[in-house]
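[audit] Reproducing an earlier prediction to check determinism. Same input, same settings, fresh worker. If the tokens differ from the archived copy the diff job will pick it up downstream; this log only records the rerun itself.
[audit] input (612 residues):
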Amino acid sequence: MENTSNKKIFFSRNDFLKINDLNVNADMIRYNTIAMIINAQSGHIGASLSCIDILTVLYHRILKPTDYFILSKGHGVAGLYATLESINNINENDLLTFRKIHGLQGHSDMACPSISNVLSQSICSNTGSLGMGISKGKGYALASKENMVYVLIGDGELQEGQNWEAIMSASRMKLDNLVIIVDNNRIQTENHTTDTDNLTKKFESFNCDVIECNGHNIIDLIPILTNIRNKKNRKPKVIIAHTIKGYGIRICEEMKFPYRWHSGILNIEEYKIAATELLNKITIKLKITGIILPEISYPLKIENEFIIPSLKNSFSKWLLHVKDKYPNIVVLDADLKTDCGLNEYQKKYPNDFIEVGIAEQDMVSMAGSLEQAGRIPIVNSYTAFLTSRANEQIFNNASELSQIIYVGHLAGVLPSKAGKSHWGVRDISLLKAIPNFILFSPSSEDELIDGMDYLIGNQHANIYLRLEHCNIRNELPININKISYKKGNIITTGTDIVIIAYGPLMLSECLLAQKKLCSEISIKIINLPWLNKIDSEWLKETIGNINNVLCIENHSIYGGQSDEIRKLLPDKNIHTIGIDWFGQSGDAKDILEYYWLDYKSIATKVKHILKR
């Protein structure tokens, strides 16, 4: 999708100024939302569309300059950005930067560029990891009882325990300036929400003032939100807004399961149908002729360098393979079964598959008792959530001398478009301080299967399988498949410098860097999949008399594998490339270049090291 001077992509602020009908405004915002997601080829259509009527009423009628708003369901942020553009809070051109590097972030983020300095018209909290919004809202509500605080949460998000911790004390604190709006669209990632029935009774049991309404009826939403604002009864307010996920586009409203449009992208034909449907509806409602409609356009196909498939399918294959060997295996999931490659296992072994929902701490503690009862639990979630949110529960399980397999999916910087909340770049540092833990990062299907088979059969310890889901751009060589506990293998021989890496992404980039420099620098590349257990004698012998060692971390530079190598090789010059700040949204190529993790940057770093 090109932003050329003669092509109109979005409804502009001037278009919104010409319309004094919030129903029309909401559909214009819907159009801008899907155009923005299509331009980025990434985003959450369903969750964004379900809350747009609520956002339209809040920002066009309710919020005052002193109010605060938190989008706790941060994945619906495309709808929020489009709403902010409709009130001139961000520029129209900003919408083109959605999920691009240095642009609008993939989840709600305080770094959002803003024309206005008014706090309520900006974003008051970083979200993305679910369950924090109500607690954040309580902080603002306590800071000033004169200001109203609005928190929009998802119904599936209510599975996170922190919500109920927050609600339990909100009434005791008499926070009648806190308004919690539940986007009750009844669908989480793929299926109907679980454990969220009778929400009114649940909130009322915590002494909240609760009202239910149709979250798409703007005529009703305005007086409801106005009256709640003025009601002072020393109780937190809860609005349960019944909505439809993907509302406004027929194909996205269909409750066919698994639901496609949580984070799925419309193809060209589907987008044309959806955009035409919205434009027709808007055109019928418009009674003035001064608005030029945007053109329906789809981004040009860009040649993708990252074409070699990720390890997700290899993990799915291994699950079926290992279940045949160990019938007492049970697999646990946190509402991410497709993303984690668990569908085939669930179909074949439905009685040994536990869908816990969006509740990582609960899932991990359950795994601990399942293990004590004689099962082998395999626990799955995104790396960013599993290893941080449930870290205390993981530690507790380990202290019981358990053997549990934790699988951290989406490890590392890619896929990168979701932004900092979803980057799995702290997991090694968080887990390697826990005793009786083995951290393993395979780079190929054979390495994954052989390594995990060895660990289950020979090591009574907790196992962390660090699983990258990114495609790579260079085929890895055959000898990467050799597996030997605590030891790696040499991929290329060399005498000038040693590069140590793990995982398919960084090894792929290292090989491309070596090819780029092969005529001038001799590089030894080592694949070392063991992140916290390394054979000291093997490492020293493999490095030999080469003085410079470059460690490539698909992780923070703090607490990763390079720290272990530095301790084992005190006499060598150890250099590290990795993440040294918070992550951001962006295309794979741009993110790797920005953080010096692409092959060109690695080659440049090698030259600098040897020149120095």
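[audit] rerun output stored. Observation attached for the diff report: The mean pLDDT is 94.
[audit] end
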